[in-house]
Amino acid sequence: MNLIDYGFIPTMLPEDANWIPARVTAVHKERYELVCEHGQTFGKLKKSIYYGEGIESFPTTGDFVMIAYNASGDSQIIKTLERKSFFSRRDPTPGRGEQSVAANFDYVFIIASLNYDFNLKRIERYLTLAWQSSAIPVVILTKADLVDDYTEQVKAVEKIAGSVGVYAVSAKTGYGLDTLSEYFKPRKTIVFLGSSGVGKSSLVNALAGEEIMAVNDIREDDSKGHHTTTHRQLIILNSGVMIIDTPGMRELGMWDVTVGLSEAFADVEQYFGKCKFPDCKHQSEPGCAVKSAFASGELPEERWNSYLRLKHEAKYSDDKAAYLRQKQEWHKSIAKFTKQNKKNGGFIK
Ligand code: GDP
Ligand code: ZN
Asked: Which atom of ligand 1 lies nearest, measured to the CA of 144?
């Protein structure tokens, strides 16, 4: 086994390492599934390092780590190597901050279906998330066999996607799958983003040429579906490409979109600074470059509204987290009060 096949770049190695590098292929509660030069192994975090000063990031699926290899039991994870890309979400446990859900992927496949589920706003959100991760986004529109003409949809996506590749495919007929082969290169890692039912599993299976993920057949009355995935969260295909699919990926929210917003909305932000007044709010000020771009049809008003909405959401999601924390504190204080009150014989004193 050579870790280079798993995307490891030897220059990532710390100089004086006594340990060997490994890649995290799955995260369980306290145990990590790993691959290293000795093949598959399991590992546990070295407590004094990960629970000490608190500078070492907890490994997630896709991470490269340094381990003290143990041939006859769990290896010890000593260090998380620097990530070239990652997704994180706000940890549902209060006070825990961020939780990484995938790391070191090259491409983010944004999957949307061309039929009933088609939603430009959602694609816009995913694009923002993808840019934020530092990986390269690719938009894949699935179920092309179910629509007669999707040229308008592809055009609409291309408009919001900028330089990002947009592909229409069908996992069912195989249409367009060969156009994705440029991403299916050995040592590359891909993550799939998209709502349930858009055809992620079908696409992975069609591309892999084998049943890797269970496909859920949606009935009309139950479009939610349920997802089952093989145990492993980082899978290497015969072609040598790797796919990451973790439960956390599916719950990725939009809790901090501000960082990727500028890349996703470069066509909008190009007008900033060109208005007559430097502090222009782009509402009704004279000489506003944004307004005149609407007027000339250069910038669709729809695009501007999406931009404002995402800006607002980014702010709101921050506020919301603070609000939830406050609420929790409040509930705690009520619980404390109730307990005390019971102790005191049920009377408020
Ligand atoms: P996931 O939840 O995103 O992983 O979606 P699945 O791969 O489980 O697919 C959901 C449903 O869409 C299943 O009933 C699939 O058979 C169907 N489906 C997926 N891809 C295609 C496609 O390209 N064409 C058609 N007609 N149906 C598809
Ligand atoms: Zn303006």
From this structure: 23
Ligand 1 center from residue 177 Cα (angstroms): 14
Q: Provide the pLDDT for residue 347.
A: 44
Domains of the chain: 3-80 (2.40.50.140), 86-245 (3.40.50.300), 258-343 (1.10.40.50)
The top-scoring range by mean pLDDT among 226-240, 295-309, 325-339 is 295-309
Residues 218, 249: contact at Cβ < 8 Å? no
CA distance 80 to 77: 8
Which pTM does this prediction carry?
Answer: 0.74
Strand 39-45 and strand 75-80: pairing?
A: parallel
Identify the helix (H) or strand (E) that includes residue 76.
strand 75-80
Query: Under a CB-based contact definition with an 8 Å cutoff, are residues 1 and 36 in contact?
Result: yes
Mean per-residue pLDDT, 278-304: 91
Q: Output the CA torsion sign for 246, 251, 255, 261.
A: positive
Give SS3 for 80: strand
pLDDT at 226 over 70: no
Report which ligand 1 atom has the smallest distance to the Cα of 227: 2
> What would the mean pLDDT of 93-97 be, rounded to a whole number?
65
Does the Cβ of 200 fall within 6 Å of ligand 1?
yes
Strand partners of residue 139: 110, 166
